Amino acid sequence: MKIILISNYPKDRQESMIRFSEMLLAGFRDAGFEAETWNPVVILGKFFASTTMGIGKWMGYIDKWMIFPVLLKLRLLKKKNKHTGDRYYICDHSNAPYLKYLPQNRTSITCHDVLAIRGALGHADAYCPASKTGKIFQQWIFKNLQRARLLAAVSQKTLDQLQELTNGEMGHKEWRVIYNTFNNDFGPIDKTLAEKLLHHLPLQPDTPFLLHVGSDSPRKNRKLLLDMVALLGSAWDGIICFAGDALEETLVAHAEKLGLRDRYISVVKPNHKTLQALYCSCAAFVFPSFSEGFGWPLIEAQACGAPVIASNIEPMPEISGGAALYADPANARAFADALLGLMHQGNRTQLIQSGFKNCLRFQPGKIIDNYLNLHGLQRIKL
Predict the structure, then answer these.
(1) Nearest CA among 370, 374, 368 for reference residue 23
(2) Euclidean distance between CA atoms 147 and 156, whole angstroms
(3) Looking at the domain covering 2-112+146-181+363-374, what would its CATH class be?
């Protein structure tokens, strides 16, 4: 018996999904199973610099949705009457259309969120508006996702939203919550090493900074960090570090309007060691998202010993396990007050220790066991 992972199209460079599939692959092998990954093959997409825009995007679609299904069928034909106990794991719900080519009772899929699906269906609280073609695409994904007999949702919030969209019509399906695990090594590092890793950034060792990690999507609510620092005034003299996508022009203009030109820096797509050092060195990690499916940065920050201030909208409290300070993501004053509360060392220490404890829920071994159990399997190697 083999475990076969269906992962993402390499040229799309969906780093978090690639790391997620690599984590599953290593975990299944450590558990004693023979495992391999099948990716959509880059054929037409190799002639274009990007497969996320322009004609390259459409060539990528042909690779993913026309060519790869044919290759899937051919691979399965070769397996006919052989390896009939093989299990298939589709690592990303956006690949739900592949479900119709795989054996239903032996195939599971991970639903990381339903934000784009809900956005395409007109739910404004998803903060994921869709174009006309985007709506068609997401509805196609959702139609196929409902085929899944075995499904893992990465949070209770995601599962609840998915069941709401399907009107609770579960039938004989086994849909359950299986949390994500860490998709890289995160943990405290020595202060001297952290300073060395950050020496190339305009950060002064004696200047406190707030950290935000994420994209420029409106749902990430990066503007709130500028608003909270402006409201703090002289009560807090640190800066903001935005790590992830480059700052959008509207955010830069807003900082200028608030007189915060010198109170923020942008670290575009930091490598892992730099990101870890940022988590370990920040005065607080601030995560004011309006919507998430899971929220990896929450547990990454906790694992590195950063105190967390997060949105009070689920799944942020669920994933951070109560080991954070929570506030309304539409209320910058509430976030500012939460930061002031962290200035008491006792509060800060207790929050950090609670964060370390919460991270134990997301250890890779536990998550792999849960995925095996979804298929009625147990690890071979203990």
Answers:
(1) 368
(2) 20
(3) alpha beta
